[in-house]
Design a protein that fits this description.
alpha+beta, globular
Length: about 90
């Protein structure tokens, strides 16, 4: 199991387009990936569960993965969040 925490800085948080980008990135990896916010956990490869997290701007999320490419997956997702999901603000 490999995990890291990151702060969501996107203006709408982990919702709509940012959540879609997050799930699409997670789907590229074979590891089981979860994302957590406060006391809620979600399968990082499921848009519906990611949206239920309610991760707003400024929220700390934990990304954890278990599997062959766990470290690579977590690092890629953290980088995506840190780079504002590829959007300019």
């Amino acid at each position: 199991m490999f995990e890291k925490k990151v702060i969501v800085t996107h203006k709408v948080g982990l919702h709509a387009r940012p959540a879609s980008a997050f799930v699409q990135m997670a789907a590229k990896f074979t590891s089981d990936i979860t994302v957590s916010c406060e006391d809620r956990n979600a399968n990082a490869k499921s848009i519906l569960t990611v949206l239920t997290l309610g991760a707003h701007k400024g929220a700390e999320i934990k990304i954890a993965a278990d599997g062959e490419d766990a470290e690579e997956a977590v690092n890629a997702l953290v980088e995506l969040v840190e780079n504002n999901f590829g959007e300019d603000e």
